[in-house]
UniProtKB/TrEMBL annotation:
The keyword DNA-binding applies. GO terms for biological process: DNA-templated transcription initiation. It comes from Aeoliella mucimassa. GO terms for molecular function: DNA binding; sigma factor activity. The gene is sigW_2. Belongs to the sigma-70 factor family. ECF subfamily. This is RNA polymerase sigma factor.
Length: 212
């Protein structure tokens, strides 16, 4: 599936569909939902930790968005507005019950692990999950929304209701904390940054490819 993050053409398509919906075009409503249902569901599942609950909240998100579409600021992209509605509905759901923890993953292949093979890779993924479990929940959520769900910084800021600068700081700190834990446990080797300053910082594209 092609991603359209920060894509002007994609924003234009969303805007055109929204205008058609406001004029009463039912097919445009279905098209808009189909364009964003996967991402909305993933964000809901990330926040709620339960697919069944996420599906219910995602459905509620689209119902509320369609009812409130006339209030959408047409000068702004629609997707962040839609994700903000999803996040608000998730917070309402979380207020009614305790969130289920959601395991995190990052790209293991890009880290300089000791040894090789499927067994070593599996151990590294497990260690990364354990490291992420020690990170503050909001930092981990920002990290996962960025690396696993491929949201832009601005979109994560909308979802989490914090400034973009805060999102960047949380993601950076999470990378540092995970890397430090892996080094302490001897899972990865410390890298000489004078030789390769990016060796402990897997690229976002590589992370997305590894996570499927």
């Amino acid at each position: 599936m092609t991603r359209h993050r920060d894509n002007t053409d994609s924003d234009a398509v969303d805007r055109a569909l929204a205008l058609e919906i406001l004029s009463g075009e039912q097919s445009a409503m279905r098209a808009l939902v189909e364009r964003h249902e996967e991402m909305v569901l993933r964000v809901c599942q990330r926040m709620l930790g339960c697919r069944h609950d996420a599906e219910d909240v995602a459905q509620e998100t689209f119902l509320r968005a369609l009812r409130s579409l006339a209030s959408w600021d047409r000068s702004r992209p629609l997707r962040p507005w839609l994700l903000a509605i999803a996040a608000n509905r998730c917070r309402t759901a979380l207020a009614k019950r305790k969130a289920v923890a959601c395991d995190g993953q990052i790209l293991a292949e890009e880290l300089p692990a000791r040894g090789s093979g499927d067994q070593d890779h599996g151990q590294l993924v497990e260690e990364v999950d354990l490291a992420l479990a020690q990170v503050r929940s909001e930092h981990r959520q920002a990290f996962e929304l960025f690396h696993q769900d491929q949201l832009a910084y601005a979109e994560i800021a909308e979802v989490m209701e914090v400034p973009v600068g805060t999102v960047k700081t949380w993601i950076h700190r999470t990378r540092q904390e995970v890397a430090a834990r892996l080094i302490r446990r001897g899972v990865v080797e410390r890298v000489d940054h004078s030789e390769n300053e990016h060796a402990m910082r897997p690229s976002r594209a590589a992370t997305a490819n590894a996570l499927g």
